[in-house]
Design goal:
- The protein has 203 residues and is an all-beta fold.
- The chain contains no helices and 22 strands.
- The strands form four sheets. A seven-stranded parallel β-sheet has the order 1-4-7-10-13-16-19, with no helix packed on it. A seven-stranded parallel β-sheet has the order 3-6-9-12-15-18-20, with no helix packed on it. Strands 2-5-8-11-14-17 form a six-stranded parallel β-sheet, with no helix packed on it.
- The protein starts with 5 loop residues before the first strand and ends in a 12-residue tail after the last strand.
Amino acid sequence: ATGFEVAFRISSRPWVVVNGFSVTGASGGGIAIKSSSDHSVVANCIVFSNRGRGIWIRDSINVIVFNNLIYANADSGVDFGGESRGSAGGVGFGNTLFANSRDGIRVEGLVPSPRVSVLQNVIAGNFDNGINLKSRSANGFVGQWNLTTDPYGSDAEAGAFDLVGSPSLLAPSGGDQILGRDGHWDDDFRLRQLAAGQTEQSA
C-alpha cells in the first residue's frame, strides 16, 4: 500500500468482505470501513506497519473484525467509532493485536458506538491500552475471554473471564529482531507450545 493513504477504503458499501490480505505501508491507515458500510467483515488479514490505524470502523454498524494479525501500526490496532451514527454492534473476535502505537482495540468517536463486543483476542505490547472504551460507548459493551498483558483504559474493565498474562508469542520480531516494516518476513506470532519443543506453554 506504499504511496496510498489507506490501502482498503470501503465507503457506503454494506456487506463487503475483506478476506486474506496482507496490508502494510499505507500513509494513513490499513483498512477503513466507513459511511454506512454496515455488516461488512474484515477477516484473516495481516495488517502491519501502517502510519495510522490498522483497521478503522467509522459510522458503520454490525461490522465484524475476525482472526486478523494487527501489529506495529502507528495508531490503534482496531478502532470502532464515528462522527455521525457511530459503529454500534461491532465485533472484534479472535484477533492478535501487538505493539500498536496507541491502543490494541479502541471504542470511541464523537457519537456513541454501543453494543460492541471484544472477545477472545490476544492483546500485548500496545503503547497505551489493550482495550480502551470511552464512556459514551459503554452501553451494552461486552469484553470477555481476552488474553492481555496491557492495561484497560477509560471505562474498560477486565472481563470476568479475561486472562491477564503474557501470551508467550514465539518470536514477534523474528531472527532479525526487526518488527514489521522490511523485516516482517520472519515475524513469528505462533504461541509457544511444549509439544512443539518450546520450553514454555502459552496461556
